[in-house]
Every structure is written in C-alpha cells, then in structure tokens.
Amino acid sequence: MKFSEWSYTRPDYSAVKKKISDCKSKMQNAGSYQMFRDAWMDVKKEIEYMVYQEEIIYIRHLCGIDYQYSLGEVEIQNREEPSVYALRDECNRIAAASGYRRELEREFGNRIFAHLDQHRAAESSDSIRLQSEESALKLQYRKLMVKDNRDDEALYQVFRKLIEIRCELADSFGYDSYIDLGYLIQGRQDYGTKEPADFRRNIQKYVTLAVADIKAKGIDYDYPPAIAANPGELISAIAAMFKDLSYETGSYIEEMTQKELYDLETRANKRGNLFTCCMLPYEKLPFIIGNYTGNGMETGYTVHEFGHGFAFYTAARKQPLYELHRSSPAVNEIHSKTMEHFMFPYLKMFVGEHKKEYIRNHLMQQLENLAYRCAIDEFEHLMYDRNMSRVQLCELWADISNRYTPWNRISPEDIHQGKCWPRQTHIVESPFYYIQYDIAQISTYEFYLKMKSNYEQAWSDYMRLCSEGGSKSYQELLETAHLSNPFIGSAVEDICHPIVDELYSLL
C-alpha cells in the first residue's frame, strides 16, 4: 500500500495513558520475569503505535498536505505528548530499578537504560507546561519560516522566548544551565563540553585556514545542474544506484519506491529547502522529504536522506527495540553523509559529465560547513544567557562567525541593527545537534579514504555500523566500524589533510 493511502487516526491520548498506567501496575505487581517483561514491552508497543500515527500526520504537515488540518493535529500532539512520555519514563525507571534489570539487559543489551536521562520527560506540572510551550514555539517558528516574506521581528521574538523557556526547563530539572540538559537530550553520554570545544579549535586551526586560502582563489563553487528534470527522474536514478550498490540497499529501495515513501515535490505551505527523513516505527520504514528543483546539490541532499532511511531500515530489522533502531546524531550522520560518498561512482546518472566539478564542490562545501557548524556550536554554548539583548546576541555571533568563517564578514550596520543572529533552524528545532554533523564528517572522510584503498572493506564496515543502530555506545560503534575517535590526538588533522590535498588537486 502506498503511503498516500495510509490512514491516520488521532491517538486517543487518554486511552494511551490509561493503558500505560495499567502496564505500570502490572510491572509493580509482577511475580515473574515474563510477566514483568510483557508489561514493559506493552508500554513500548503503545508508544510505538502512537508515534507511528503521529508521524503520518506530521509528515503531511511538513509536506504542506492538508496543511491547516495537519497543523491542528500537530498542535494537539505538542500538548499531549509530554504527559504520555512522563508515564513511559516512570515505567522505564521502574524497570531500571527492578530486580529484573539484569535479565532485561541480557535479553536486550546493556544500552537499553542508557536512554533514561536522554528521554527523560516531565517530572512536574511545570516541566510538562514548559515542554508544551517549547513545542508550540518551535511550531510557530516553523510557520514563520514557511512564509515568503519572513517577519524578522517575529522570528526573533520566538527565538528569544525559546531561550527563556529552555532556561526555565533546565531549572525545573535542577540543571545549572540548559547546556547540560541539551547534551542529555542529544544522547551525549560518551563526551561532555570539553571534547567539542577542543574539536572546534582543531577545525579552526586546520580547516578554516585551508578554506580561506582556497576561497581567495575566486573559484565559483556552484553545483552543476542535475540531469533529472523532476522528482520522478531523480528517484529513478537513486533507485538504480541503490540496486547496484548491494542486495541490502536494493531490497530497501524496492520497498521505498513501491510504497512511495518520499515526497520531493514543491508546493505551497511546504517549507522551502527542507530535506529530512522521518521514521515510522510501527512499520519499520522511513519517509524521505525534500524540495527538488533540479540543482545538482539537491541530488546529494536527497541521497543523504535516503542514507538515513537505509540505516534505520537496516537496524530495525536486527535490533529488537525501537529505541535501538537509531544511535546518537554523531553516528546517524555518518550513515547519511557516507552514503553521499558511495554516490560518487554513480555521478554520471546525476550530473552527467560534471563529475569532477561535483566532487570538487562537494568537498569544498563540506570543508566550509565544518567551520560554519563549529561557529554555530560555539554560539549555542553562549546564547543561553537570559540577559543578552538582541544587539549583544548579534555582536556575539559576528565575533564568532568572523573567527571561523572570515570569508563571510558581517557588516557593523547589521550588527547594530540586530539583524545578524543566525537563523539556522537546528538551533530552534534540535539544540546542540548541528555540531554532530561535523563530528560525523570526520568519520565520513575516513570512510571515503577507506573506499579508495579498500572499497569492499569500507562497505562491510558501513553495513556493520548501520546494523548495530544504537545498540552500542558512540565509542563502541566507532570501534565496530574501524573508525578513529575524532576527539583524540591529531585525528582531525590526519583525516582532513588528504581531503584538503584532493580538493587542491581539483581546482
């Protein structure tokens, strides 16, 4: 059945909470491991099906389909979810503290309780209220971003309110700052604030300098036009690539195309420049969203999202729990960004005879993005100051941006008029996520270098990484795929050096 034919029914949130509460009672009164396990698994099934229904309408909302109706449904989700997740987390804490913990870990792995802090929802009425307000503000920001003539003042006011709400939310959980809570939400259990700070310094030292030098040469890095004239032709090219890559990717793309689990069309109320991958847990299938206009760069963006989908699809068929179908963003982005490099041998299908130009521009864009994302990350670590004015936020951003990306100088006039705080949507939608593209990029480069020396080993390591999902820690997953730790020693310099050399050779 095609996705367009899937039915949506709004979850009965009261009934869901009643079922989870009943499961909680069964867990508390269980007389055996089997009884305890069954009740715990029933909680997960309730959440999984609720999320599945929510994702159907959320996808339609992002795609601008039945926009007003889907918008209303998403607003209801934002109000109802915090209290549901609070009950779920109570059940997980009961499981973690129970006498059956060891048996659960033997059956499902020792990562199953690592998610408790990451997914900790409300613990008080204030926390529930604040999380609902945060979701409403993100939705408001999304609506403003859809408009052609964006209201700069309205966007800033949402931005300012989000800072205040998140600081209050951190207070409600007892954290010293929102940074601590943000790190937990992103699943950063293998490293703290020191490692990203060191990482940013290395990028500024080794990458900013190289990019600035290459930028000074005045070369045009616009992507060549794509061969595909429309989304249908692009999907055909991606399908041909995936079918040739491996049996696993072929099976994946066959199901994706049969069920039309993608939307690359542009339409009113669909957010421009949006490329993303949504997960449908109940069906163990992803859904790809994009805005395809015929630019060669967009072909890579689309393959990137199909890479996310493939990793989810693969892990969902091996890992027993939905929480383990994905890892932390620093790993998830390796899946998708590496798929962009597996695309290189197939570039003729996407950009014709412009393969060299595409690779040059791709390497340049990613190196430039390394510096830009580090700037955003440093800004995020400093922006949660409730006392900073709009102009002060702009001054902060201008100082950071000029250090990491000196080729994008911000004018004093824009600073004084308060116009230059960054509109990067990740800051609003998913705080502290953005730097993880960079952390993953170093591993992606390492995969790319491995492809050149031993393609079969690179693919084997990649498949193993995808299959493991979130069943291991970040460091364990790197070891599984024979990848270096980007935070240790000279990893950034050693891995980026041959990439920079290749880029120079393509100028």
List the helices and strands and how they pair.
Elements: H1 13-28, H2 33-62, H3 67-97, H4 101-108, H5 115-118, H6 125-146, H7 152-173, H8 178-185, H9 194-215, H10 231-245, H11 247-258, E1 262-263, E2 276-280, E3 285-289, H12 296-316, H13 329-342, H14 348-351, H15 355-383, H16 390-404, H17 412-416, H18 425-429, H19 435-453, H20 455-468, H21 474-480, H22 491-506
Parallel strand pairs: 1-3
Antiparallel strand pairs: 2-3
Task: Provide a brief overview of the structure.
The chain is mostly helical and 507 residues long. It has helices at residues 13-28, 33-62, 67-97, 101-108, 115-118, 125-146, 152-173, 178-185, 194-215, 231-245, 247-258, 296-316, 329-342, 348-351, 355-383, 390-404, 412-416, 425-429, 435-453, 455-468, 474-480, 491-506; strands at residues 262-263, 276-280, 285-289.
